[in-house]
Structures are given as structure tokens and as C-alpha cells.
User: Which sequence fits this backbone?
């Protein structure tokens, strides 16, 4: 029996268990770097499967399965994330979150269940391959500095360098059973912008003797639109958005302080650094011109996610072989961020998407849902890719 057919059969055998794991994780979500019960649950499953593992950071886990076909120093790593989001679930699922204000609204429960399923299948196929497969169960993908960076700082592979690290992510817009991939630049860097203006607050009826911090911050917001429209090179995708503007005065009170929070995304590290300087300069000069003092804090987040071109093209061909040539699509650039980019800076990387068949159920929304049949693809494909790359 060919390897691909073996994998498909094993996925079908274990699908009920994988689905049960996903539903358990969905019911008991935990926020970034607080995934203690999730980590214990994963450790229990790995022990049950007879797979060696170790803890890396408080809640991260790295497991490894060495192939027994022949001796080889080659290795491939597969990664999933553990954390949920601070979202109140609004689904009617029987396994909906029981933790108030916390929800797996980004599919990390599916990713983790699929990776456990992949690990179980690869353990059962350990006589069919050489080299080693690592399984990275990573905490804190949704919060800076990102669990990927923390695990790298803790030498998760103990000095070894995988020839390839692979990760997958749900994509509601794709049909179930389909996958998407993009060589080279794929996802943006992401930084958090915090701006605070202060001045002399006072009575709203006497703005002439106050510093109108509300008007000043409004002008800052408008002026900063030039970062994307006039300063950004036209060939580099750039987004600067603000989602939080707090002027905590009242109908007749101009507040002493106004704060603004937003995000900056781009696809080029040199322009990214320059843009930080421009944002600070525009905000400060605009505020000062209206009599307010200004403080700008830019918290540097995840870098640009870059898929290794050669290995990603190879992965795409393997995906077509496993799923069918009509079921693998080319993905466009995406301005969302992903801390898997830290791994991609250090090792050759492939990050791809699998379809959930629910385009109306958006990622990060309180009614996010997936078609659980997507876990057939999400479990089988990583096994096929890892063992194919190991030969």
C-alpha cells in the first residue's frame, strides 16, 4: 500500500478521537501563556501514545518521533498553537466554551487536535521513515512577544536545526478539503502603536484657555494617514489603523489626556523601521503645533512571515499529490500577522492554509465555527508533508 493511502486510512480510523480532542480543547480554552490545563492534556495524550516529549517554557511542549527505517540526522518540525482569544462565544455548540470571555475563535483547538492526531499516526508509521519528526505545541501565538520567540530563546530543538518547519492555519474562505499556499512573502509584520497627548484640560465652554486635546488627537489621526498614502513606497503593502481613541471627558469637559491605540503592518523590514520614525515625528509635531505634549510608544511585534520559496513550491506539489491538483490554490499576500514568522527567520519554513468551508464564520469572531471534516485534511496533510520531505 502506498504511503498516501496508508495515511488516509489511519486518519479515518482516528478521526472520532481527533474530533473528541478538538471538542474538549474548544470547551476549555485558555488565554495566551495561561494554557496550563491544555498543556497537561497534551502531555497526557503524548504519554498515552508512547511519544517522548519535554516542556519548553511554562506551557509549551516539544515532542519527537525518530524514524526506524534507517539512521539519519535529518529532521522536520510540525507546529500548532495552544492559546485562545479574549472573546465571548456566541455559538450554540454543545461543546461551547465554559470559560467566560475566552474562546477558541481562531482555530487553535483544531490545529492542536490535528497535530496530536498527526503525531499518533506518525508514531504508528515509525518503521516507514528515517530521520526525526518534531511536534511543537506552542503557547501564546496571540500575544506579544509571541510563544514562538520564547521557545526559540529556550533552544527548543536543543541545538539541532530542522531542515524544515511546517505550520498550518484554518481559512474560512476555502472549501473543506482544500488548501492554499504561497512561496516567499506571505504575511505582514505587526507593531502596536500607543500615543498619548496631554495638555491643560478645562471647561468645554472655554476652549480658548485650554489645550483641546480631543481636537489635537483628531488631527494626529488624520495626519498619520499620510504614512500609508504618501510616505510608504507604492510597491510595499502598508496598513496603519487605529481602533481605540479614548478622550475621557464629558459633554462640557475637555480632558487633560487623550490616548490612541492602533496597529502598523507592512511587508518590508527596512521600511518598517523608517515608518516607526515617521509615525513618531508626525504625531509629535502635530500635537506640539496645537499646544499638546505627545508620547509615542511603538511595541515591535512579529516580523514578516517568509515561506522558503524552494521548499514551499515542493510542498505545493506534494499537497496536490495528496489532495488532488484542483484542491490546492495560490494564496494572496495577507496583512494579518503570525508569530510563526520567528521560526521562519531561523529555519526554512512552510506556512499554509486549510479550508474550513465556513466563509460567513470569520476568524476572531464570537460565532466562529469550522466544518470538522476539515480535520481530515488538517491531520493527514502534515503527516504526508513531513514524511515526504524526510524521504
Assistant:
Amino acid at each position: 500500500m502506498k504511503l498516501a493511502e496508508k495515511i488516509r486510512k489511519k486518519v479515518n480510523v482516528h478521526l472520532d478521537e481527533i474530533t473528541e480532542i478538538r471538542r474538549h480543547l474548544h470547551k476549555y480554552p485558555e488565554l495566551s501563556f495561561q494554557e496550563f490545563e491544555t498543556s497537561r492534556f497534551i502531555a497526557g495524550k503524548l504519554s498515552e501514545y508512547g511519544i517522548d516529549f519535554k516542556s519548553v517554557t511554562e506551557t509549551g511542549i516539544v515532542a519527537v518521533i525518530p524514524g526506524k527505517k534507517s539512521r539519519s540526522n535529518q529532521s522536520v518540525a510540525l507546529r500548532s498553537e495552544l492559546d485562545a482569544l479574549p472573546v465571548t462565544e456566541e455559538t450554540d455548540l454543545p461543546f461551547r466554551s465554559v470559560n467566560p470571555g475566552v474562546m477558541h475563535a481562531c482555530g487553535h483547538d483544531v490545529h492542536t487536535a490535528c497535530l496530536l492526531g498527526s503525531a499518533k499516526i506518525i508514531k504508528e508509521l515509525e518503521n516507514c521513515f528515517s530521520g526525526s519528526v518534531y511536534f511543537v505545541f506552542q503557547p501564546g501565538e496571540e500575544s506579544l512577544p509571541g510563544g514562538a520567540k520564547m521557545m526559540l530563546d529556550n533552544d527548543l530543538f536543543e541545538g539541532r536545526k530542522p531542515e524544515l518547519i511546517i505550520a498550518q492555519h484554518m481559512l474560512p474562505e476555502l472549501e473543506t478539503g482544500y488548501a492554499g499556499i504561497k512561496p516567499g512573502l506571505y504575511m505582514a509584520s505587526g507593531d502596536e502603536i500607543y500615543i498619548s497627548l496631554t495638555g491643560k484640560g478645562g471647561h468645554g465652554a472655554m476652549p480658548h484657555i485650554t489645550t483641546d486635546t480631543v481636537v489635537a488627537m483628531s488631527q494626529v489621526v488624520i495626519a498619520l494617514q499620510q504614512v500609508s498614502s504618501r510616505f510608504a513606497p507604492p510597491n510595499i503593502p502598508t496598513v496603519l489603523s487605529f481602533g481605540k481613541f479614548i478622550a475621557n471627558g464629558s459633554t462640557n469637559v475637555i480632558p487633560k489626556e487623550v490616548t490612541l491605540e492602533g496597529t502598523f503592518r507592512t511587508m518590508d523590514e527596512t521600511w518598517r523601521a523608517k515608518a516607526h520614525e515617521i509615525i513618531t515625528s508626525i504625531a509629535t509635531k502635530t500635537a506640539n503645533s496645537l499646544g499638546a505634549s505627545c508620547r509615542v510608544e511603538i511595541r515591535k511585534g512579529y516580523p514578516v512571515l517568509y515561506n522558503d520559496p524552494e521548499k514551499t513550491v515542493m510542498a505545493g506539489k506534494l499537497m496536490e499529490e495528496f489532495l488532488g491538483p484542483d484542491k490546492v490554490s495560490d494564496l494572496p499576500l495577507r496583512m494579518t500577522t503570525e508569530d510563526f514568522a520567528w521560526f521562519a527567520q531561523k529555519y526554512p519554513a512552510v506556512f499554509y492554509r486549510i479550508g474550513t468551508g465556513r466563509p460567513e464564520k470569520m476568524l476572531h469572531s464570537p460565532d466562529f465555527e469550522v466544518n470538522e471534516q476539515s480535520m481530515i485534511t488538517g491531520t493527514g496533510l502534515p503527516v504526508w508533508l513531513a514524511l515526504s520531505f524526510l524521504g
In short: The longest helix spans residues 3-27. The domain at 189-300 is CATH 3.30.70.360 (Alpha-Beta Plaits). The mean pLDDT is 96. The radius of gyration is 24 Å.
